[in-house]
Amino acid sequence: MNTFTIIFIIALIISNSIQFYLAYRHGKFVNQHKNAVPEAFKDKIPLTAHQKAADYTQAKLSVGRIDEFLGIAVLLAITLGGGINWTFAYAATLINSPLWAGVAATASIFLMMSLVDIPTSLYQTFVIEEKFGFNKSSGAQFAKDLLMQTVLGGIIGLPILALILWVMDNVGSTWWLWAWGIIMGFSLLMSWLYPTLIAPLFNKFTPMPEGALKDRIQGLLARCGFNSQGIFIMDGSKRSGHGNAYFTGLGNNKRIVFFDNLVESLEDEELEAVLAHELGHFKCKHVIKMLISTSIMSLISLGILGWLIDQDWFYTGLGVGLEQKSHATALLLFMLVSSTFTFFMQPISAYFQRKFEFEADSFAAEHSKASKLISGLVKLYEENANTLTPDPLYSAFHYSHPPAAIRIAHLNAKS
């Protein structure tokens, strides 16, 4: 057996064992604290809501375990099981161009992986979300969304994939620098285009009507020196009962978006505080910092791929015969297995994301009322059935936001 095959299998076992262990810890911890509302929330969230959040967390963890097992099985089937070998060989018999054969084979692998995910997505949406009162979607809406996502993925993704493979085949040893430039340029372009061209294909965005709420928000924007292309309310309730707010876009194409169910749930001052938090991410330059870190990691990743692409053991160790050795198979293999070797970076990424959340909360406390952000967050915790008692180790790996009790304590200190 190839040495790299052994390394890959060991890494896969270790990474997934840790993920299963973390999920087990999380479920056990949540269940142990199910029958008592944490002290910080005793007067704000009823026990029934706290228990609902615990049950919802357990249900999601169960589906997550199934997803993990399926993911492992599919990954092994398409690598060591010969799936990539067969797919690329078959594509070559149908398409004369090596470039387009590679594009077709790569797209086929990802399409197959998406199809495998459909049953668990259906169960998550129409069983779990339905059971806990969050699902507002229909079977027809689910199918429409899936079809549109697939078509858009093909229209947008296939030309970019073809361009990157062409660069890999024709530019020479510096191809990875050119590919990095293409990827980053594409990411920036999509960030600019998404709000006005893609998001409206899935949801309706209505300008916020004139009134006290809009006046309050415009006053906040003026105080923060934030310019946008408009304030919109999105019909998020047509799919889910979960509320949210965000701003999107770059440069002069930025827009502020509130889910309609969020507007219905929160008071005007609470909505102002929630938006102040979102603006905090922008004013604290979190968007730029994340963009820079992403670009650096992308550059490092492509540099590593630039070395691996010439190593025969990389292909044979992952089940791809040297007769199928190509830039397309190397790129696909790297995308499929890199997360197995980088899972240990999850706590580092999560730490900085939580740090950004604290900074955004501090900004919100300076430009709105911390007490209103607290009350708004508490309502969202209850309405979205977010557990108030996550396992500390699990949250260190998986939580991009600080756990509820820690976040509220931080905001109380700012009051």
Topology overview:
Layout: H1 3-32, H2 47-78, H3 83-94, H4 98-131, H5 139-170, H6 175-202, E1 205-207, H7 212-224, E2 231-234, E3 245-248, E4 255-259, H8 260-265, H9 268-283, H10 286-308, H11 312-316, H12 327-342, H13 346-367, H14 370-383, H15 392-398, H16 404-414
Parallel strand pairs: 2-4
Antiparallel strand pairs: 1-2, 3-4
Helix pairs in contact: 1-2, 1-15, 2-4, 3-4, 4-5, 4-12, 5-6, 6-10, 7-9, 9-13, 9-14, 13-16, 14-16
Radius of gyration: 23 Å
Could you give the count of β-strands?
4
Spans with pLDDT under 50 lasting ≥5 residues?
A: none
What oligomeric assembly is this protein in?
A: single chain
- Percent in strands: under 5%
Largest sheet, spatial ordering of strands: 1-2-4-3
Query: Helix/strand/pairing class, anyone?
Result: mainly alpha
Give the overall pLDDT as a whole number: 92
Shape annotation: globular
Distance, first to last CA: 62 Å
Molecular structure report:
With 415 residues, the protein is mainly alpha-helical. The protein has a domain at 3-193 and 310-347. The protein has 16 helices and four strands. The protein has helices spanning 3-32, 47-78, 83-94, 98-131, 139-170, 175-202, 212-224, 260-265, 268-283, 286-308, 312-316, 327-342, 346-367, 370-383, 392-398, 404-414, and strands spanning 205-207, 231-234, 245-248, 255-259. The chain is globular, with a radius of gyration of 23 Å.
Brief digest:
The chain has helices at 3-32, 47-78, 83-94, 98-131, 139-170, 175-202, 212-224, 260-265, 268-283, 286-308, 312-316, 327-342, 346-367, 370-383, 392-398, 404-414, and strands spanning 205-207, 231-234, 245-248, 255-259. It is mainly alpha-helical and 415 residues long.
